[in-house]
């Protein structure tokens, strides 16, 4: 399962009267229709992503079970994609150890390419499979194998020019080590297999 965005709504049809043009006769009444929330807009050649929904921890990921661990691993990758789009690493950092190998390799680039007016288009990770045997290691941790693929994209300079193109990756294998403590999961390490 990968994080996907739906698009819908859009602009009102041509010829729709603006709210301010209603006749002034009678008292003003509050609108019965809710104000639409700002729509998600992915990053493109013209600018950064806008109104990116913050991933929410699924209920399943709160349990100390095989299913809970696997749901938590998917959630971690959803937070990674959120970070690619926004440059906001606070969510993923809050559940990841400072000694996480993949974090140390990837997070500085995310921070760099979402600062000083730059942005990332695409390059997000699609998770194809998550699997854990849910057997504790001697340290009391659990391991999760993740099969994923990084999508194509580009790194944009502040003036909108391409600084670098990101090619779609081959299928990637990561190994996550996580621990369940005080009622929640935390990532101790994520590292790329075969690198």
Describe this structure in a few short sentences.
The protein is an alpha+beta fold and 195 residues long. The chain is 20% helix and 25% strand.
Give me the secondary-structure topology.
Blueprint: H1 66-86, H2 90-94, H3 101-113, E1 119-122, E2 125-131, E3 142-150, E4 153-156, E5 162-166, E6 172-181, E7 184-192
Which characteristics define this entry?
four-stranded antiparallel beta sheet; 20% helix; three-stranded antiparallel beta sheet; 195 residues; 7 strands; disordered N terminus; globular; 3 helices; Nuclear Transport Factor 2, Chain: A; alpha+beta
Structure, explained:
The chain has 195 residues and is of the alpha+beta class. It has a domain at 59-192: Roll (Nuclear Transport Factor 2, Chain: A), CATH 3.10.450. It is built from three helices and seven strands. The chain has helices at residues 66-86, 90-94, 101-113; strands at residues 119-122, 125-131, 142-150, 153-156, 162-166, 172-181, 184-192. The strands form two sheets. A four-stranded antiparallel beta sheet has the order 2-3-6-7. Strands 1-4-5 form a three-stranded antiparallel beta sheet. The longest helix has 21 residues, at 66-86. It is globular and about 50 Å long. Mean pLDDT is 86; it is low at 1-31.
Provide the helix percentage: 10-25%
Shape: globular
- Strand percentage lies at 15-25%
Strand order of the largest sheet: 2-3-6-7
Instruction: List unreliable stretches of 5+ residues.
Output: 1-31
Average predicted local confidence, pLDDT: 86
Q: Count of DSSP helices?
A: 3
- Number of E-type strands: 7
Secondary-structure element order, N to C: HHHEEEEEEE
Proper CATH architecture of the domain at 59-192: Roll
CATH class of the domain at 59-192: Alpha Beta
């Amino acid at each position: 399962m990968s994080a996907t965005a739906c698009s819908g709504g859009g602009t009102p049809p041509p010829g729709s009267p603006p709210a301010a043009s209603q006749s002034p006769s009678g008292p003003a009444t509050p609108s019965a229709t809710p104000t639409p929330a700002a729509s998600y807009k992915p990053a493109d050649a013209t600018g950064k992503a806008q109104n990116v929904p913050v991933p929410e921890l699924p209920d399943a990921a709160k349990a100390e079970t095989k299913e809970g661990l696997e749901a938590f691993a998917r959630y971690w990758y959803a937070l990674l994609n959120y970070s690619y789009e926004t440059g906001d690493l606070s969510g993923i950092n809050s559940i990841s150890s400072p000694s996480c190998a993949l974090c140390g390799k990837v997070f500085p680039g995310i921070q760099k390419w979402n600062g000083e007016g730059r942005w990332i288009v695409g390059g997000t990770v699609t998770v194809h499979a998550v699997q854990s045997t849910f057997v504790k290691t001697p340290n009391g941790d659990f391991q999760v194998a993740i099969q994923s693929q990084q999508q194509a994209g580009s790194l944009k300079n502040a003036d909108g020019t391409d600084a670098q193109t990101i090619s779609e990756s081959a299928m990637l294998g990561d190994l996550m080590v996580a621990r369940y403590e005080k009622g929640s999961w935390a990532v101790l390490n994520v590292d790329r297999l075969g690198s």
